[in-house]
Each structure stands twice: as structure tokens, then as C-alpha cells.
Write a structure and sequence with these properties.
7 helices; single chain; elongated
Length: 207
């Protein structure tokens, strides 16, 4: 008998559930818990929304810049992929929390006229941003996973390994990261601009 050799990567005997890919996926699902949390005020009756929005306002642009950077240089995913995905997960979860706090604040203010219209547009843009950024977070985790699998480190989960090992899938994932990064970049500006207009409406003299 003659032994045969194969250049295909050796599949682990069992699924390695403690791998970063699975841990990040689990954390991402846990991030959806903030969808059910609505906080109106914090200490001394201060509205929670203006405080909460500082987190996504900082972390979403950081995640977008990081996503574009690792798409340009895929090798950086090896070093920064886990940190980038964690940043995106926190940004996603804090976005949900800020949206819920914003909805509670809107209900308490009883706005009308132009201010009410601006807040409605602000809320609609925030929903689009939340959906787009959730998609970007998922794409980042999948791209990180696909990169490691493509480098010969399969997870042991046959379905994921067979799909994400394909070069065409990795290319599509990177294209998706770029597309949703640009969408998120636009909408994080749009949400902030509409919110600022609503806050300052009537507070500055018109000349």
C-alpha cells in the first residue's frame, strides 16, 4: 500500500467552541439585550440619551475606520481583528441603548411642530444606522473568521469551514464591509446633524 498525501488543511477532530470567532458571535448576540432596556434619566433626573450617545458617536467612526483599514490590509485582521470586532459589538449595543433612551426622552418631551419633525427624522435615520451597523458588525466577525479559516485554521464546524474558506466568499465579505462602512459613515453624520438641529432649534437668533 502507498500512503497518499493531501495539501488540504487538517480539520480539527471537534468544533473548537472557545475560539475567538464563536466567542465574538456569542457576545454579538448578547449585545441585542440592550434592545429591551429603556432608561429615561440617570442621576439627578438628567436625561440619559445625551450621555449614552457619546459611546456610539465615538465607537462607530472608530469601527468604520478600522473596518476600512483591515479591508485595505487584510493582514491587519490577524493582529487587530478581535479588538475591532469587540469595538463594533460595544458600538452596536450602545446604539440600541441610546435609541431606547431617545425614544423615552421623546415621549417625555411632548414635542410639536418643526422640532417634532426633526426628531422623527432623527429617529428614522438612527434606525437605519442601527440596521446598517448591525450588518457591518456581522460582516466584520465573518470576515475575521473567513480570514483565519482561509489561512488554514478551520474551526471544526464543517458548514462554516467549507463556506468561509472559499476565496470568492472572502472577497464578497470584504466588499460588504466597505459598502456598509460607507453607509454607516453617512448615517452617523446624518443622525448627529438632525439631532443637533432639533436641539438648537429656536435657541439661536435668525438673521
Amino acid at each position: 500500500m502507498t500512503a497518499t498525501s493531501s495539501s488540504a488543511p487538517v480539520r480539527p477532530a471537534r468544533v473548537e467552541w472557545r475560539r475567538a470567532e464563536f466567542v465574538l458571535t456569542g457576545l454579538a448576540f448578547l449585545g441585542f439585550l440592550t434592545l429591551g432596556i429603556r432608561i429615561t434619566t440617570i442621576s439627578s433626573g438628567l436625561p440619559a440619551h445625551p450621555l449614552f450617545i457619546h459611546v456610539p458617536v465615538i465607537l462607530i467612526p472608530v469601527s468604520v475606520i478600522g473596518a476600512l483599514a483591515v479591508t485595505y490590509r487584510p493582514a491587519w485582521l490577524e493582529r487587530w481583528g478581535i479588538a475591532l470586532c469587540l469595538c463594533a459589538i460595544v458600538a452596536m449595543s450602545s446604539t440600541f441603548l441610546a435609541m431606547q433612551a431617545g425614544a423615552a426622552l421623546t415621549g417625555a418631551l411632548h414635542l410639536s411642530g418643526r422640532a417634532s419633525q426633526l426628531i422623527a427624522e432623527h429617529a428614522t435615520a438612527a434606525k437605519i444606522l442601527a440596521i446598517a451597523f448591525t450588518a457591518l458588525t456581522a460582516l466584520l466577525i465573518l470576515t475575521f473568521s473567513a480570514t483565519r479559516i482561509g489561512d488554514g485554521r478551520p474551526t471544526g464546524l464543517a458548514v462554516a469551514d467549507s463556506i468561509l474558506a472559499q476565496p470568492q466568499i472572502r472577497l464578497l465579505l470584504r466588499a460588504g464591509v466597505v459598502l456598509f462602512s460607507l453607509i454607516c459613515a453617512f448615517y452617523v453624520y446624518r443622525v448627529g446633524d438632525l439631532g443637533a438641529q432639533a436641539v438648537w432649534l429656536g435657541r439661536l437668533p435668525v438673521r
